[in-house]
Amino acid sequence: MKIAVISDIHGNFEALKSVFEDIETEQVDKIINLGDFINYGPQSEEVTNFLLENEVLSILGNHENAILYDETLRKFQVHSRLSFMITKEQLSDNSINYIKTLKYFYKEDDCYYVHGIPPDNCSDYIFKLDENDVKEIFSTYKEKVFFVGHTHVQGMYFLNRDFLCKQKMIPDHEHRIDLDKKIIINIGSVGQPRGHDKDAHYVIYNTEEHSVKMKIVKYDIEKTIQLLNKYRYPQINSEILKNY
């Protein structure tokens, strides 16, 4: 089975459409979305409807969680809160009700999917974990492969002789996974990639070959920026897309 794992679309409908066109060429069996599909970008309503129409299995990110809990919103930076106020006005009742149905994690076979950190944390960052934290995750859960998002930067985290290793992913390269060991894969971001790469990111996981492949997809950044300006989103949202 081939699974496309996407995350952090952040209302960037142009990026999402381009990623879906690329996914179609990969002939995947399933698409799983790790959350944060709203806010920052100008088309959260369109993104939500697209995910619903295409029956994408989605879980909650911290930006969806802010729809449910004010305490999550209070933790946001100023530009994130300002963006959220605009985004919330754009979302239909149907989209908000859909968000209310989503769970914080998903498990299937040897895979565990969560926005931030297992078991159900959508707000903390994987790069802040130390060796003991990773060991605890690996010893607590039976799954072998953990997919996370939230940081917007792709990478793999695993233990080698009890030392925590962090490895970048090579675009379009089949990274083989040793299922005798456990691994955390940060899949990056569709709509707001960071790490000095402007293009959209996602990964393909092949359950039969036990391999993961990072995909990088170009999209119409200028169209997204024009819409950000039209709806008066904070200027930093455009700057991040152009220069982060």
Verbal overview:
Helix content is 36%, strand content 23%. With 244 residues, it is an alpha/beta fold. The chain has one domain: Metallo-dependent phosphatases (Purple Acid Phosphatase, chain A, domain 2), CATH 3.60.21.10. A six-stranded mixed β-sheet has the order 3-2-1-11-12-9. It has a six-stranded mixed β-sheet with strand order 4-5-6-10-7-8, covered by helices on one side. The termini are far apart. The model has no long low-confidence stretch (mean pLDDT 94).
Question: Major sheet: size, sense and barrel closure?
Answer: 6 strands, mixed
What would you call the shape?
A: globular
Just name the CATH architecture: 4-Layer Sandwich
Order of helices and strands: EHEHEHHHHEEHEEEEEEEHH
Task: Determine Rg (CA atoms, Å).
Answer: 17 Å
Determine the CATH topology.
Purple Acid Phosphatase, chain A, domain 2
Question: Numbering strands along the chain, what is their spatial order in the largest sheet?
Answer: 3-2-1-11-12-9
Unreliable stretches: none
